[in-house]
TrEMBL record:
<dbReference type="Pfam" id="PF13472">
    <property type="entry name" value="Lipase_GDSL_2"/>
</dbReference>
<feature type="domain" description="SGNH hydrolase-type esterase">
    <location>
        <begin position="14"/>
        <end position="196"/>
    </location>
</feature>
<dbReference type="InterPro" id="IPR013830">
    <property type="entry name" value="SGNH_hydro"/>
</dbReference>
<dbReference type="InterPro" id="IPR036514">
    <property type="entry name" value="SGNH_hydro_sf"/>
</dbReference>
<protein>
    <submittedName>
        <fullName>Lysophospholipase L1-like esterase</fullName>
    </submittedName>
</protein>
<dbReference type="InterPro" id="IPR051532">
    <property type="entry name" value="Ester_Hydrolysis_Enzymes"/>
</dbReference>
<dbReference type="GO" id="GO:0004622">
    <property type="term" value="F:phosphatidylcholine lysophospholipase activity"/>
</dbReference>
Length: 211
Protein backbone atom coordinates (compact mmCIF):
# COMPACT_ATOMS: atom_id res chain seq x y z
CA UNK A 1 0.00 0.00 0.00
CA UNK A 2 1.26 3.47 -0.84
CA UNK A 3 2.00 5.86 2.00
CA UNK A 4 -0.77 8.00 3.40
CA UNK A 5 -1.39 11.23 1.51
CA UNK A 6 -2.53 14.71 2.41
CA UNK A 7 -6.27 14.99 3.08
CA UNK A 8 -6.80 11.23 3.21
CA UNK A 9 -10.15 10.13 4.64
CA UNK A 10 -9.65 6.92 6.60
CA UNK A 11 -12.69 4.74 7.31
CA UNK A 12 -12.69 1.92 9.86
CA UNK A 13 -15.43 -0.65 9.27
CA UNK A 14 -16.33 -3.72 11.29
CA UNK A 15 -18.07 -5.10 14.34
CA UNK A 16 -17.81 -4.49 18.10
CA UNK A 17 -14.01 -4.62 18.07
CA UNK A 18 -14.03 -1.60 15.76
CA UNK A 19 -17.12 0.02 17.31
CA UNK A 20 -15.61 -0.08 20.81
CA UNK A 21 -18.12 2.22 22.47
CA UNK A 22 -18.29 4.94 19.85
CA UNK A 23 -21.06 7.54 20.11
CA UNK A 24 -23.32 7.01 17.10
CA UNK A 25 -24.67 10.55 17.42
CA UNK A 26 -21.24 12.11 16.83
CA UNK A 27 -20.11 11.58 13.24
CA UNK A 28 -16.41 11.81 14.02
CA UNK A 29 -16.44 9.88 17.30
CA UNK A 30 -13.95 7.00 17.13
CA UNK A 31 -14.75 5.02 20.26
CA UNK A 32 -11.95 3.95 22.60
CA UNK A 33 -10.32 1.13 20.64
CA UNK A 34 -7.78 0.68 17.87
CA UNK A 35 -9.29 3.33 15.50
CA UNK A 36 -8.78 5.93 18.24
CA UNK A 37 -5.22 4.75 18.87
CA UNK A 38 -4.41 4.88 15.15
CA UNK A 39 -5.92 8.33 14.71
CA UNK A 40 -4.02 9.61 17.75
CA UNK A 41 -0.70 8.29 16.49
CA UNK A 42 -1.14 9.48 12.91
CA UNK A 43 -2.38 12.86 14.09
CA UNK A 44 0.65 13.27 16.32
CA UNK A 45 3.11 12.30 13.62
CA UNK A 46 1.59 13.91 10.57
CA UNK A 47 -0.43 17.02 11.49
CA UNK A 48 0.45 18.50 8.12
CA UNK A 49 -1.50 15.75 6.29
CA UNK A 50 -4.90 16.96 7.58
CA UNK A 51 -6.23 13.40 7.89
CA UNK A 52 -9.91 12.68 8.60
CA UNK A 53 -11.02 9.54 10.44
CA UNK A 54 -14.41 7.81 10.50
CA UNK A 55 -15.45 4.81 12.58
CA UNK A 56 -18.53 2.96 11.37
CA UNK A 57 -18.09 -0.30 13.26
CA UNK A 58 -21.32 -1.71 14.71
CA UNK A 59 -21.41 -4.33 17.44
CA UNK A 60 -22.63 -7.74 16.33
CA UNK A 61 -22.16 -7.14 12.62
CA UNK A 62 -21.30 -9.83 10.10
CA UNK A 63 -20.36 -9.51 6.44
CA UNK A 64 -24.03 -9.54 5.45
CA UNK A 65 -24.67 -6.55 7.74
CA UNK A 66 -21.85 -4.57 6.21
CA UNK A 67 -23.32 -5.25 2.77
CA UNK A 68 -26.69 -3.86 3.84
CA UNK A 69 -25.24 -0.56 5.01
CA UNK A 70 -22.23 -0.19 2.70
CA UNK A 71 -23.75 2.59 0.59
CA UNK A 72 -24.46 4.84 3.57
CA UNK A 73 -21.60 3.85 5.88
CA UNK A 74 -18.82 3.54 3.32
CA UNK A 75 -19.41 4.78 -0.21
CA UNK A 76 -21.27 7.95 0.76
CA UNK A 77 -18.36 9.01 2.98
CA UNK A 78 -15.93 9.00 0.02
CA UNK A 79 -13.03 7.49 1.97
CA UNK A 80 -9.60 7.24 0.39
CA UNK A 81 -8.53 4.47 2.78
CA UNK A 82 -11.02 1.71 3.68
CA UNK A 83 -10.11 -0.58 6.58
CA UNK A 84 -12.31 -3.68 6.90
CA UNK A 85 -12.21 -5.87 10.02
CA UNK A 86 -15.07 -8.37 10.03
CA UNK A 87 -15.55 -12.07 10.60
CA UNK A 88 -15.64 -13.18 14.22
CA UNK A 89 -19.45 -12.86 14.40
CA UNK A 90 -19.76 -14.87 11.18
CA UNK A 91 -18.20 -17.65 13.27
CA UNK A 92 -19.76 -16.85 16.67
CA UNK A 93 -23.37 -16.98 15.49
CA UNK A 94 -22.86 -20.60 14.44
CA UNK A 95 -22.11 -21.55 18.04
CA UNK A 96 -24.43 -19.33 20.06
CA UNK A 97 -27.43 -19.01 17.72
CA UNK A 98 -27.18 -21.90 15.24
CA UNK A 99 -26.90 -19.32 12.45
CA UNK A 100 -23.77 -20.22 10.50
CA UNK A 101 -22.11 -18.35 7.66
CA UNK A 102 -20.12 -20.67 5.43
CA UNK A 103 -16.62 -19.75 4.34
CA UNK A 104 -17.96 -19.52 0.79
CA UNK A 105 -20.72 -17.08 1.80
CA UNK A 106 -18.25 -15.04 3.81
CA UNK A 107 -15.78 -14.87 0.93
CA UNK A 108 -18.46 -13.92 -1.60
CA UNK A 109 -19.95 -11.18 0.58
CA UNK A 110 -16.54 -9.79 1.51
CA UNK A 111 -15.53 -9.76 -2.16
CA UNK A 112 -18.68 -7.83 -3.06
CA UNK A 113 -17.79 -5.21 -0.45
CA UNK A 114 -14.38 -4.79 -2.02
CA UNK A 115 -15.51 -4.70 -5.64
CA UNK A 116 -18.33 -2.25 -4.94
CA UNK A 117 -15.81 0.00 -3.19
CA UNK A 118 -13.25 -0.12 -5.98
CA UNK A 119 -15.94 0.38 -8.63
CA UNK A 120 -17.01 3.65 -7.01
CA UNK A 121 -13.99 5.00 -5.17
CA UNK A 122 -10.30 5.56 -5.72
CA UNK A 123 -9.52 4.01 -2.36
CA UNK A 124 -6.73 2.02 -0.79
CA UNK A 125 -7.71 -1.10 1.15
CA UNK A 126 -6.58 -2.42 4.52
CA UNK A 127 -7.90 -5.90 5.35
CA UNK A 128 -7.68 -7.04 8.97
CA UNK A 129 -7.97 -10.75 9.65
CA UNK A 130 -10.22 -11.88 12.52
CA UNK A 131 -8.72 -13.74 15.46
CA UNK A 132 -9.83 -15.89 18.36
CA UNK A 133 -7.94 -16.90 21.48
CA UNK A 134 -8.62 -20.07 23.54
CA UNK A 135 -10.36 -18.38 26.50
CA UNK A 136 -12.73 -19.72 27.60
CA UNK A 137 -11.91 -23.25 26.58
CA UNK A 138 -14.78 -23.63 24.12
CA UNK A 139 -13.17 -21.07 21.81
CA UNK A 140 -10.75 -23.79 20.68
CA UNK A 141 -13.64 -25.45 18.86
CA UNK A 142 -14.24 -22.29 16.83
CA UNK A 143 -11.06 -22.76 14.87
CA UNK A 144 -12.63 -25.17 12.38
CA UNK A 145 -15.06 -22.41 11.40
CA UNK A 146 -12.79 -19.37 11.68
CA UNK A 147 -9.65 -20.69 10.00
CA UNK A 148 -11.23 -20.96 6.52
CA UNK A 149 -12.53 -17.40 6.91
CA UNK A 150 -9.04 -16.16 7.79
CA UNK A 151 -7.79 -17.94 4.67
CA UNK A 152 -10.50 -16.16 2.66
CA UNK A 153 -9.36 -12.73 3.87
CA UNK A 154 -5.77 -13.57 3.00
CA UNK A 155 -6.84 -14.65 -0.49
CA UNK A 156 -8.76 -11.40 -0.99
CA UNK A 157 -5.86 -9.29 0.24
CA UNK A 158 -3.58 -10.99 -2.24
CA UNK A 159 -6.05 -10.67 -5.11
CA UNK A 160 -6.71 -6.98 -4.55
CA UNK A 161 -3.18 -6.10 -3.40
CA UNK A 162 -4.49 -4.72 -0.13
CA UNK A 163 -2.49 -3.92 2.97
CA UNK A 164 -2.94 -6.90 5.30
CA UNK A 165 -3.01 -7.08 9.10
CA UNK A 166 -2.30 -10.66 10.29
CA UNK A 167 -3.91 -10.48 13.72
CA UNK A 168 -4.54 -14.15 14.44
CA UNK A 169 -0.87 -15.00 14.43
CA UNK A 170 0.12 -11.82 16.24
CA UNK A 171 -2.30 -12.44 19.11
CA UNK A 172 -1.20 -16.07 19.36
CA UNK A 173 2.43 -14.96 19.52
CA UNK A 174 1.75 -12.28 22.13
CA UNK A 175 -0.14 -14.83 24.25
CA UNK A 176 2.97 -16.96 24.61
CA UNK A 177 4.35 -14.40 27.07
CA UNK A 178 1.29 -13.65 29.16
CA UNK A 179 -1.50 -16.13 28.48
CA UNK A 180 -4.35 -15.24 26.14
CA UNK A 181 -6.71 -13.58 28.65
CA UNK A 182 -4.33 -10.63 29.00
CA UNK A 183 -5.02 -9.67 25.38
CA UNK A 184 -8.71 -10.61 25.14
CA UNK A 185 -10.55 -11.75 28.25
CA UNK A 186 -13.26 -13.58 26.31
CA UNK A 187 -10.99 -14.66 23.47
CA UNK A 188 -12.60 -12.12 21.13
CA UNK A 189 -12.80 -8.57 22.51
CA UNK A 190 -9.36 -7.05 23.00
CA UNK A 191 -8.15 -5.44 26.19
CA UNK A 192 -6.55 -1.99 26.00
CA UNK A 193 -3.25 -3.75 25.34
CA UNK A 194 -4.94 -5.82 22.64
CA UNK A 195 -6.26 -2.73 20.90
CA UNK A 196 -2.79 -1.23 21.06
CA UNK A 197 -1.43 -4.40 19.44
CA UNK A 198 -3.99 -4.06 16.62
CA UNK A 199 -3.14 -0.39 16.12
CA UNK A 200 0.60 -1.09 15.90
CA UNK A 201 0.05 -3.90 13.39
CA UNK A 202 -2.31 -1.74 11.31
CA UNK A 203 0.17 1.11 11.15
CA UNK A 204 2.96 -1.24 10.12
CA UNK A 205 0.73 -2.71 7.40
CA UNK A 206 0.28 0.74 5.85
CA UNK A 207 3.98 1.51 6.10
CA UNK A 208 4.09 3.55 9.30
CA UNK A 209 6.83 2.20 11.54
CA UNK A 210 6.91 2.51 15.31
CA UNK A 211 9.02 5.26 16.77
Amino acid sequence: MAALAANDVILFQGDSITDCGRNYHEALNLGVGYPYFIAAELGRRYPELNLTFHNRGISGNRVVDLERRWEEDCLALNPTVVSIYIGINDTWRRYDNNDPTSAEQYYAGYRRLITSTLDRLDAKLVLVEPFVLPVPEDRKGWREDLDPKIAAVRELAQEFKAAYVPLDGLFAQASMKTGPAYWAGDGVHPSAAGHSLIAKAWLEAVGVRAR
